[in-house]
TrEMBL record:
Coiled coil: none annotated. GO terms for biological process: carbohydrate metabolic process. Keywords: Carbohydrate metabolism, Glycosyltransferase, Pyridoxal phosphate, Transferase. PROSITE patterns: PHOSPHORYLASE. It comes from Heliophilum fasciatum. This is glycogen phosphorylase. Its EC number is 2.4.1.1.
Amino acid sequence: MAECYTIPGISRVAYFCMEYGLAAEMPIYSGGLGILAGDYIKAAKELSRPLVAIGILWRQGYTEQHIDENGQPYDTFRDYDFSHLQDTGITVKVHVRSDEVTCKVWLCENYGNVPLYLLDAGFPGSPHAWMTKQLYGGGREERIAAEIILGIGGIRALRALNLDVDAYHFNEGHAVFAGTELIREKMAEGHSFEHAWLETRQSVVFTTHTPVAAGNEVHGHDILQQMNAYNGLTYDQMRELGGDPFSMTVAGLRLAYMANGVSKLHGRTVQRMWGHLEGVPLIFSITNGVHPGTWQDPRIKQAFETRGDLWAIHMDNKRQLLQYVKDTMGVQLREESLLLGFARRAASYKRGDLIFRDLDIIDPYLATGKIQIIFSSKAHPADTMGKEIIANLVKFQKKYPNSVVFLENYNMEIAKKLVRGCDVWLNNPRRPQEASGTSGMKAAMNGVLNLTVEDGWVGEGVQHGINGWLLDFHPGEDTAPADQDVWDMHSLYRILLQEVLPTYSKNRKHWVEMMQLSIDMSRWQFSAHRMCREYYDLMYTPIVNNRKNRLLQTVM
Ligand SMILES: *Cc1c(COP(=O)(O)O)cnc(C)c1O
């Protein structure tokens, strides 16, 4: 790989994210946000973009979640081995409460022109290991401490490493304290807060991933003050940035020159949620993408490009998945029967159980094995509702042991097998709550056909009966949740039983054509490469050009 740390004319960007999903062996991610960041830096690497990624070394990762003999999920944590990371020899200091916290800076070395630096308060002998122990673990204090380390520590790491960047990208609100550090630096040079804020905005872009206002992180000012998150700013100044209580998303927006949502639909939702607030910049959308090298079977790619036998390769992937299910669960699913996949965070709006809601309809298909489903999921360790959702899916596995499977401890390795080996990828969240949803893109690239509601990325690619199937669009987003559920359930049964299943069993030729069209629809449009180029072309370059123009104006 080219060692191109700078390319004349191309902006050099520091990318901040709380989690990175690079590989199952590097468990510093929890789900979609981390996988997206991991796919992003892989694509940036392959496109030779100059990018510096900043994250946290989560010594115990997220959670390993298994199912006990009563069918309940339980969490285990352990210290992972990160001895393959490279010690930069650099440390940075931040203040949390009244403590001075020292963080080591590690280099996750195999990302070439896109170095990933991980901040770590958990090295041997550190009294502050709790701050970077478990991703999204602990309570509010742990979260704020980690956000201070990511944001403020991240900027200090860039300075200590002597890395000059043209722009800062805050990927989700966790990173916004980086903005207070950029402001503090300028105030230390003698500028007023207002001037420092204005100047900071000229170099920051912000991406928000949350589609519902309640899902956005908010902290009281008292605890921010106790934790020392003000970073030298005053209450009034912090309130101007994030309001009172302090919203990480609002602060992200007000610290940025431009901001984006992660699908076209989500961009509009973000505009509706925040656009009316004072000090909010232009909000548009850059649709997420996934890294084909990670998610697409190379044999599928080749068969697509050479008009080879997609079906044979698909069946090989399906057999590999069934073998994995047999090895781990002792269940032999049928190769010739339709296989649905559903792997998502355990959140009630995702409605993993929708397909079971009228057993009179679906029971005959599950009992005879005409339809088979593999689920996989993790719930946040403190999320009892999420754990109930998982326990409920496990109950259906017990009820239909030969056609319903729940794979515990969902991670990238399991995701990889599922998005290659299932026939159909099922996605039926309530609307409009999915910002983007990326697993369906991974499936589409492998010729695994999406059966999905029209939410997130789906509206930009999936066409009913052509490269996947869409549930009927119901009367409106304002429909009450319970009514949506009934509507979508009937729609799901009708399309599954009258369209998907007959095509699968009676019209293989059309099925394979749909696979072909699904790969064609997704391989560029929903690739992380397309996404990365858009961030450079639509956000990083304009922000740097704008700054140059302003500079020019002051000179003239
Ligand atoms: C792709 C992926 C996700 C995100 O998928 P969604 O469709 O956004 O829910 C989460 N976890 C893992 C392990 C993944 O591979």
